[in-house]
Every structure is written in C-alpha cells, then in structure tokens.
C-alpha cells in the first residue's frame, strides 16, 4: 500500500472516530435535554439514629411531596462518622452520571455541636450512579484538609461550570482567618468527585458573621438578567447574582421585607435554602427550612429572580410524612422518574404477626424491645411491612416498622430488637428471614434465620427470641399468621 493510501486510510479512520464520538456525545446531550416531568428531593430527617442518612421524596408538580422507600432511608453511610446530612444531588451535563455529596456528620452518636464544628470531619461523603437508582459504595473526599485549622466541612453543594468544563464543589468550613474564627464558604474543582484542586476561599461575610448554607441555581436564558443566582444563610437569606460561577457576584437583597431571616433579622427564622425551577416554565421555588419553629420546609416563588421583591409566599404545598431537612431537588425526566418510582415507590401492605398459640397476642415493639402482647396500643407498634430481605431478596423477607421507617426487626445476641438499619452486612443478615410453612400448622408461617438457618423466630415468656426448634411447644411458639 502507498504512503498516500495509508495516510488517507488513517485520516478516514480519524474522521469516523470523530463522527462516532460526536454522535455519542449528541445522544448523551439529547438525553439530558429530554423534558423534565418530575422532581426528586434528597434530604435527611434530623438527629435520630436513622435520621442522618439519605432519604428521597418525589413530586409530580414541585409542590406536593411523597416519601419514597416507605419513608425509610435509601442510602446509608458506612464510612467516616457513619452519618450524613445536607445531601446534594448532582447530574452530569450529558445526563449519564449522577453523584450525591453530603456532610460527614452524625450528631445522633453523641457528638456535640462544638466538637463537630471545631474537631469534626473535614471530608465529604460521595456516592456515584449511572442510572439514579443503583449507587456505588460511598467514599470520602477530604476537601477541607488543606485549610489551616479546619474544624469541619459542612453543607456541600456542587454545580457544573461550563467555563472550565468541570464541577465546582463548595461547602462551609469553620477556621481561623485574619484573627477571626467562623464559617466561610470554600470551593474546589473536580471532574470525577475523587480528585480535586486545592481549596480556595469562595464567600466570606464581613466581621464575625459566619455563613454555612449556600446554594446556586443555573437559570436558563438569564431570566432576571443573570445566569446564576445563589441564596445564602448568613444571618439573613441573602440573594446574589452573577454570570460566572467563579466570578464576581452582585447582591440583590434579602428576604427581610417578607419577615424571613436566618436569625439576624428575626421574624420567621429559616436555614438550608434549596432552589428548584418548575418544569416547563420560568418560575422558581426557593425552599426554606423553618428550623426555629420545627415546621420544616416552606416555598417562596418567583417568576423573575432579578429582584428579591418578586418573591411571594404560597400555601398550596405538602411535604409528606417525613420531616425534611437541608437537601436538594433535581428535576427529572420521564425515564429517570420511571426508574426511581420502580425502585422506591413501593406498596407492600401493612401487616401484623399473630401468635399461633396465643391468638389474642401480636408481635410488637415496645421501647425497641420485641414481644407478643394483646390489645397493642398504639396499634402501629404491631404493624410491619414484609419487604424483600435486606441480605437476600430472593425468597427472604425483612420486617420494617410502620411507625419507625428505616427500623427493622433484627436479632442481637439471639434476642430481638427494633433497630435502625446501619447499612452493614451484619445488620442485613440479622434482619433477614425465610418465610416457610408454619412449623405447628402449615397454613400459618414460620420464619427461619438467614444467617443461623437452624434457628427460627419464636416467643419465650412472650419475648421474641431466635432459637432452634425441637419440641412441640417450640413449634407452636415459632408459628405466626401474617394478617392485616
């Protein structure tokens, strides 16, 4: 073959590769531009044993929310402090990858706020997914490790920056600077949420005024005059605007005229500002957590973010059952919504477990212990959902509490307790059982342990135990009816 032919062949191959790459990129970008039909909120619920994990809620109209996964957590942190708060949902521009980043903090473990702020984790917790429903194991990124005297890394957010082709991750760190110790917003850049640049100061308020919560939204067509808007809890809820994420920002004002502040201005004291655009129209909600009164999130709306005077309060919303604390909202496509709802919008019935040999008694939890009692009050203490087994979903079940979402019946030292799922393989195995024909009556059910298959759930002196079954008495004690 001649050199000319060889060169022509190489050029042709290069053109084909470029065109193929362009086609793949175009398809990915087109997928990301599919019309949005729903909304997904990631949040935590509070300082409880299961509250500092990742919860999801769904909405079809951006105002009325339904808790997913029966109201229980969908992701658990098994690293760092083993608790997470302030989750942010991030989608790649191509719509082919997603991340959740969150504060590595667990107040429920007994950590004081002072320790958490001054001697806490300087890392963020990250999960990754390619479909929004199957998530990687979490990992830590020590974003604040390069800040002198850093005491923590709280309330992370991330936004894609088209000017640099990567993501800006920003968060609050408490540290000394120019003789003043307070929370300031810092940022790093990353393309993969694993490696990142050195931390840089992003937002600092004058004097001793600290700043923890800030969130940026990208506004199509620069409605109101700017491409980006950010809301920050800095004593007030301050609204700023810019045409460049890492450029200069213009202060538009705050919400004091609406009787809303972050404490400095009194009135309705809120935190955790959370932006969301309504699908298909130029209207935005700014959700604010009314933490001072415990009322949870409320939305204020605007069709033009160029002035804080354009916001209006509204009452046509509902937040679902769970209390929703500082999180983020992702507008989702029909395909994304279908996957999310198929995974977590579950409808297992509410059941009770009736004792075979004490038929006026039902399995119930009381102060997190588990026993059989008659006349259970409140009734929800004896109500469970038989969900696919945490350790093995094929032919096995787990018992999730109705009134304590995220809590399951598990054996511990062969005694039974109601405990929050901690995301470990040990917990999953201890909370998983095979439902088999009743040992005393085949029309009823017995429950065989997943990790101790020679043992079954039985009651003894009305308390639930995990024991081998070798006698007629034990077979009766280990037999139950699943009933409504």
From TrEMBL:
Tell me the first and last residues of the signal peptide. Answer: none
What's the domain of life for this entry? Bacteria
Q: Which Pfam families match?
A: AbfB (PF05270)
**Domain Alpha-L-arabinofuranosidase B arabinose-binding: start-end pairs:** 352-482
Read off the CDD domains from this record.
beta-trefoil_ABD_ABFB (cd23399), GH43_Bt3655-like (cd08983)
Cross-referenced Gene3D superfamilies, in alphabetical order?
A: 2.80.10.50, Glycosyl hydrolase domain, family 43 (2.115.10.20)
Name of the featured protein: Alpha-L-arabinofuranosidase B arabinose-binding domain-containing protein
Native source species: Phytohabitans aurantiacus
């Amino acid at each position: 073959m001649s050199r000319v032919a060889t060169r022509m062949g190489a050029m042709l191959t290069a053109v084909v590769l470029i065109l193929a790459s362009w086609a793949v990129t175009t398809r990915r970008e087109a997928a990301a531009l599919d019309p949005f039909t729903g909304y997904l909120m990631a949040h935590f619920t509070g300082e409880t044993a299961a509250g500092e994990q990742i919860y999801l809620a769904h909405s079809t109209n951006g105002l009325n929310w339904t808790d997913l996964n029966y109201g229980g957590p969908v992701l658990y942190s098994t690293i760092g402090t083993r608790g997470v708060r302030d989750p942010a949902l991030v989608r790649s521009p191509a719509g082919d990858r997603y991340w959740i980043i969150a504060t590595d903090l667990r107040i429920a473990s007994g950590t004081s706020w002072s320790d958490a702020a001054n001697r806490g984790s300087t890392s963020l917790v990250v999960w990754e997914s390619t479909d929004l429903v199957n998530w990687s194991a979490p990992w830590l990124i020590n974003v604040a490790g390069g800040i002198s005297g850093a005491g923590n890394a709280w309330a992370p957010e991330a936004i894609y920056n088209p000017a640099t082709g990567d993501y800006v991750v920003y968060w609050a760190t408490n540290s000394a600077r120019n003789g003043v110790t307070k929370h300031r917003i810092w940022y790093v850049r990353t393309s993969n949420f694993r490696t990142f640049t050195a931390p840089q100061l992003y937002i600092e308020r004058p004097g001793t005024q600290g700043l923890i919560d800030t969130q940026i939204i990208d506004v199509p067509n620069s409605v109101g005059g700017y491409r980006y808007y950010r809301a920050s809890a800095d004593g007030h809820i301050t609204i700023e605007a810019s045409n460049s994420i890492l450029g200069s920002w213009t202060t538009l004002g705050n919400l004091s005229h609406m009787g809303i502040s972050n404490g400095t201005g009194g009135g309705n004291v809120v935190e955790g500002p959370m932006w969301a655009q309504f699908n298909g129209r130029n209207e935005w909600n700014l959700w604010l957590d009314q933490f001072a009164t415990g009322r949870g999130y409320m939305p204020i709306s605007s069709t033009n973010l160029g002035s804080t005077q354009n916001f209006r309060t509204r009452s046509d919303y509902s937040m679902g059952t769970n209390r929703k604390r500082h999180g983020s909202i992702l507008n989702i496509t029909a395909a994304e919504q279908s996957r999310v709802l198929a995974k977590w919008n579950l409808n297992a019935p509410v059941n009770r477990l009736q004792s075979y040999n004490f038929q006026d008694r039902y399995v119930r939890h009381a102060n997190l212990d588990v026993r059989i009692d008659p006349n259970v009050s409140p009734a929800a203490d004896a109500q469970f959902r038989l969900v696919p087994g945490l350790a093995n979903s094929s032919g096995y079940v787990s018992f999730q509490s109705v009134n304590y979402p995220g809590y399951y019946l598990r054996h511990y030292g062969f005694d039974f307790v109601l405990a929050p799922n901690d995301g470990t393989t040990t917990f999953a195995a201890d909370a998983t059982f095979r439902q088999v024909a009743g040992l005393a009556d085949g029309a009823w059910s017995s429950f065989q342990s997943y990790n101790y298959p020679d043992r079954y759930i039985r009651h003894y002196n009305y308390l639930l135990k995990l024991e081998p079954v070798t006698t007629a008495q034990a077979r009766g004690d280990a037999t139950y009816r699943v009933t409504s």
